[in-house]
Write a structure and sequence with these properties.
By secondary structure, the protein is α/β, with parallel strands linked by helices. It has 10 helices and 12 strands. It has a single domain, classed as Aldolase class I (TIM Barrel), CATH 3.20.20. 35% of the residues lie in helices and 28% in strands. The protein has an 8-stranded parallel barrel, surrounded by 6 helices.
Length: 253
């Protein structure tokens, strides 16, 4: 059995960690460097850093802040937000990122995925997908930090991106985001079933049981933000609980 991963997400706006519900009503959640250091110390498996307004404001991710976070942690570190070229990726990797997350730019220019995986290896390229269920019961892709809807089904886009060389999927359910009512099991399970790369479930983790449900055959990793930022879930306790549920996770020391 492969070890399942618990991932903390830092959504960054103006250099601060923020968190909202269903992608709106953002609240300040603290200093990203301090939080990153704390989570690494508590035994989180990976860290994802998303500059959530970079694409919309046509800005580049805050390289200096990435640098400061990278110096504080010794775990895999994924960075996303406003990445649209080989140069953007190289700069972030030079500043301490291990992987990069692409979303809107990849959707608008799918050949970017081919190019980045050729240059840096598919293990470095994480496809981030923000998705929402429509009235027809299908999940569709959203862009620009969830602000722009598309007519492309989530599964179709993920499959194309995998064929182009993305090595991992970060799947965020906008319907579940920030609700703490549980992860989106149906769409996560569907994507996992149809792709051969790891799938990270994001959106809705509110209690340890939710993590156990999604990691039990539906996803390879579970990502959360506010429950960690505001101390609602303790990372070592979460891992102990998952081990008790026979879900293999890296033990914290």
């Amino acid at each position: 059995m492969l070890t399942k991963r618990i991932i903390a997400c830092l959504d960054i706006k103006d250099g601060r960690t923020v968190k909202g519900t269903n992608f709106v009503d953002l609240k300040d959640a603290g200093d990203p460097v301090e939080l990153a250091s704390l989570y690494a110390h508590q035994g989180i498996d990976e860290l994802v850093f998303l500059d959530i307004t970079a694409t919309n404001e046509k800005r580049k991710t805050l390289a200096e802040l990435v640098d400061r976070v990278a110096q504080k942690i010794n775990i895999p570190f994924t960075v996303g937000g406003g990445i649209s070229s080989v140069e953007d990726v190289r700069m972030l990797l030079d500043h301490g990122a291990d992987k990069i997350s692409i979303n809107t730019a990849a959707f608008n220019n799918p050949s970017l995925i081919n190019e980045l995986s050729r240059q840096f290896g598919s293990q470095c390229i994480v496809l981030a997908v923000d998705t929402k269920m429509h009235e027809d019961g299908e999940n569709y892709v959203y862009l620009n930090g969830g602000r722009k809807s598309t007519e492309i089904k989530c599964l179709d886009w993920v499959r194309e991106a995998m064929e182009r060389g993305a090595g991992e999927v970060l799947l965020t359910s906008m319907d579940h985001d920030g609700t703490k009512q549980g992860f989106a099991k149906a769409i996560t399970g569907l994507v996992t079933q149809h792709v051969s790369v790891p799938v990270i479930a994001s959106g809705g983790g509110g209690k340890p049981e939710h993590f156990a449900e999604i990691l039990n055959g539906l996803a390879d990793a579970a990502l959360a933000a506010s429950v960690f930022h505001f101390g609602e879930i303790n990372i070592p306790q979460l891992k102990s609980y998952l081990l008790d549920q026979n879900i293999l996770v890296r033990q914290t020391h």
